[in-house]
Amino acid sequence: MTLAELAERLDRAALTAAAVAQPADLEVGDAYLVQGLSIDRRRRRGERVVGIKMGFTSREKMRQMGIEETIWGRLTDAMRIPSGGTLPMARHIHPRAEPEIAFLLGRAPDPDEPAASLASAVEAVAPAIEIIDSRYEDFRFDLAGVIADNASSAAFVLGEWRPFSTGLAIAGLDVALELDGRVAESGSTAAILGDPLLALAAGVRLAARYGHPLTAGDVVLAGAATAAVPLREGVRVTARVEALGPVSFRAV
Ligand code: OOG
Ligand code: MG
User: Fold this and answer.
1) Which of ligand 1's atoms lies nearest the C-alpha of 56?
2) Comparing C-alpha atoms, which of 145, 122, 15 is closest to residue 69?
3) Which ligand 1 atom is at minimum distance from the Cα of 228?
4) Rg from Cα positions in the chain
5) CA 138, CA 160: separation in Å to the nearest integer?
6) Integer CA distances (angstroms), 232 to 90, 120, 126, 240, in order
């Protein structure tokens, strides 16, 4: 199978909510090419890339999925659910939700910039929920497989943006994910590579390395602070991040 054929297969799996088998013998560089090709298909349907999401930036996520390497995927405008909005379960295969924080870039970051100076590229931060939905059977994959599948990204919800210029401390904030008002997962933003700004630095560097330099206006999801929880129809999901507030959606 060519890389373009694999991209088409994964794109169709996402469109039809039908899982496919994992590719064999794929290399990481080729996997990012497949990811780019599948995003090109979305672009041709009118979607716009609005940022990136980081994956496997916390121990909890690495442990849950058995992958130890930080990855990234592209976010498009069509993946965004308004805060308080709904996620149609029928359009997904086996979706899961995880609590995150999001950065909004105020300027183009330099891939060689240290994390400390990258803070000045951040315009605002927000609490976020990412909905992941592997296009592979049983939600199982290896490193190259999940990269080709756009790091399982399916949808995301952003809470209220908070200006970052004040130098707001974002490492060590309590995080909780609630299902119908009951805490299902809890942790801290410190779980995200020790400091979510380090996840941003990794994203800036990795995306540039694979031909996707970030720019002003881009959104960056830092990666989940806790394990992801499976969704079921009707459930209301809320993430609460200390000092940043709540964000929620309902699965329908
Ligand atoms: C891959 C995506 C990981 C995160 O926040 O760590 C991710 C997956 O778990 O399916 O989004
Ligand atoms: Mg995530």
Assistant:
1) 6
2) 145
3) 9
4) 17
5) 34
6) 11, 40, 25, 20
**Pair 239, 128: CB distance under 8 Å:** yes
What pLDDT digit, counting tens, does each position of 61-119 carry? 999 999 999 999 999 999 999 999 999 999 999 999 999 999 999 999 999 988 889 99
How many whole angstroms from 155 Cα to the centroid of ligand 2? 10
Which residues are within 8 A (CB) of 5 and not within 5 positions of it... i.e. 6 or more apart?
none
Average pLDDT over residues 52-69: 96
Q: Tell me the ligand closest to 191's alpha carbon.
A: 1
**Is the ipTM here above 0.95?**
yes
Going by CA atoms, what residue is nearest to atom 11 of ligand 1?
55
Residue 34 pLDDT greater than 80, yes or no: yes
Tokens of 16: 């039809």
Taking residues 184-211, report their average pLDDT.
96
Domains and CATH numbers, the chain: 3-251 (3.90.850.10)
The pLDDT value given to residue 167: 66
In sequence order, what DSSP letters do the residues of 130-178 get, joined into one string?
EEE--SBGGG---HHHHHHTGGGEEEEEE---EE-TT----TT-EEEEE
pTM of the model: 0.98
Residue carrying the six token digits 């805490």: 183
In 3D space, the residue among 241, 228, 119 whose CA is nearest the CA of residue 190 turns out to be 241
